[in-house]
Amino acid sequence: MEIKFTLSVLECKRDVHGRAYMGLQNTTRVGSPCRPWAESSLEQDADFPERNKTAARNFCRNPNADAKGLWCYISESDIEYCDVQFCGKINSYLLIRYM
Which residues of 12-38 are buried (b: 16+ CB within 10 A; e: fewer)? Predict the structure, then answer.
């Protein structure tokens, strides 16, 4: 008998600032596409929940603990904020779904 499963990242944040958010959202509140974090020299790898800004790709993150929450670069120097919902009572970042 073969058991298959998939891991899915939850698309929600657990705190107001979203510091630990590791979801895949890559557009801002107004729909602008996020630029790759690796293109910025301002943030360091340790600032990201992945501990690697290349791994954070172009996903919404909050590497500087901005009080306004998750954000991303939309140009070389401009940022926009992202709208990510709260997780509620879900206590895990990963869901395991058996198939």
Answer: bbbeebbbebbbebbbbeeebebbebe
